[in-house]
Amino acid sequence: MESIKSQSYEVHLGELAEAALRQHIAKKNYSKVFLLVDENTKMHCLPVFKKILDHPIDSIFEIQSGEENKHIQTCLEIWEKLSGHDGDRKSLLINLGGGVITDLGGFVASTFKRGIDFINIPTTLLSMVDASIGGKTGVDLGALKNQIGVINQPQMVLVFTEFLKTLDPRQVVSGYAEMLKHGLIKDAPYWDELKTQGNFTDAKSIQRSIALKNDVVLQDPTEQGLRKILNFGHTLGHAIESYCLENPNKKTLLHGEAIAAGMILEGYLSHELKGLSRLSVQEIKETFSQHFEPVELDDDDIKAILKLLKYDKKNSHGDINFVLLQSIGDAVTDVKVPGELFYKAFAYYKE
């Protein structure tokens, strides 16, 4: 399967990924090779990865899985371990895991000794098609998503679809949400294909999603304009995710579960403000409702979620900026939403 070339690195899949990793390690002559895992990837993915790498690993650092561990204290622990194990500027950090591992590991590598090389090996569908691509690294600030971080590119991203067999179905479906988003913002035929497709974990679909995101990132690497379309569903979705993360009475949501809710809500806003057809709004709602349970939200929950919008990274000069759809496959950025429409959107979501 053909590799995908980004700015300064490539995304390799399958056998090409294995060959690329071995060639890179042999060529670069790293002083140390470190590996970052969580308890799940240590158990399910590490044995397979050791055979693929075929090179000694100097130290393996383990963190706890889950968004609640994606914070600066975890970074501090890894920085101290890197230092304690004689890491230097010629060291390599390999991030083997989902979006928390690749986001946090990339940030740790980008800031240790003012930057060491890192390689992302995503093990969840979400991280394969989204989190590990595009150079965004960082951590949360309390429950607020991705407030601290830098854009810095990995040496390469390696995708091995066999790791998907280690996931529970809920994790797989979480990644499906981001794949559907790629169709909604940029590729209507892909949306049509994905929403009716029984198997979305095949290498062809994964490669297509990666290529769609990569094409956007190449045109706007630092998110000055076009790249913002990748945030469709994320303004309200991140607020919902953050709210449920910090509220002990709410079920903690996976990223894709929160973004699915966000896309239904922002689909409704698209109809009200950008002319997205009512038929398309209903199609979006029905598609996500087939795969994701509705998030139970009362009026107090909604008020608290809307207060969190002020922390969204796309905001500028006090304005909350949304990505909305003019039609399926055609997104626009920097749309300001009147406050009363939020409540109408949540009312539609709960219907």
SSE layout and pairing:
Elements: E1 4-5, E2 10-13, H1 15-28, E3 32-38, H2 39-44, H3 46-53, E4 59-63, H4 72-84, E5 91-97, H5 99-111, E6 117-122, H6 125-131, E7 136-141, E8 144-151, E9 156-159, H7 169-186, H8 188-196, H9 203-219, H10 234-246, H11 255-274, H12 278-291, H13 299-308, E10 321-327, E11 330-336, H14 339-350
Parallel strand pairs: 2-9, 3-4, 3-5, 5-6
Antiparallel strand pairs: 1-2, 7-8, 10-11
Walk me through this protein's architecture.
Its cofactor is Zn(2+); Co(2+); NAD(+). It is an enzyme of class 4 (lyase). Residues 61-172 form the 3-dehydroquinate synthase N-terminal domain. Residues 175-315 form the 3-dehydroquinate synthase C-terminal domain. The protein is an alpha/beta fold. It has two domains: 4-166, Rossmann fold; 169-350, Dehydroquinate synthase-like, alpha domain. Helix content is 50%, strand content 18%. The protein contains 14 helices and eleven strands. It has helices at residues 15-28, 39-44, 46-53, 72-84, 99-111, 125-131, 169-186, 188-196, 203-219, 234-246, 255-274, 278-291, 299-308, 339-350; strands spanning 4-5, 10-13, 32-38, 59-63, 91-97, 117-122, 136-141, 144-151, 156-159, 321-327, 330-336. A hairpin with a 4-residue loop joins strand 1 (4-5) and strand 2 (10-13). The chain is globular, with a radius of gyration of 20 Å.
Largest sheet: 4 strands, parallel
**Mean pLDDT level:** 95
Strand content: 15-25%
CATH class division of the largest domain: Mainly Alpha
Rg: 20 Å
The number of helical elements comes to 14
CATH architecture of the largest domain: Up-down Bundle
* CATH topology term of the largest domain: Dehydroquinate synthase-like, alpha domain
Q: How would you describe the oligomerization state of the chains in this entry? A: single chain
Strand order of the largest sheet: 4-3-5-6
* Count of beta strands: 11
Total discrete domains: 2
Task: List the secondary-structure elements in sequence, H or E.
Answer: EEHEHHEHEHEHEEEHHHHHHHEEH
Helix content: 40-55%
CA(first)-CA(last) distance: 43 Å
Structural class: alpha/beta
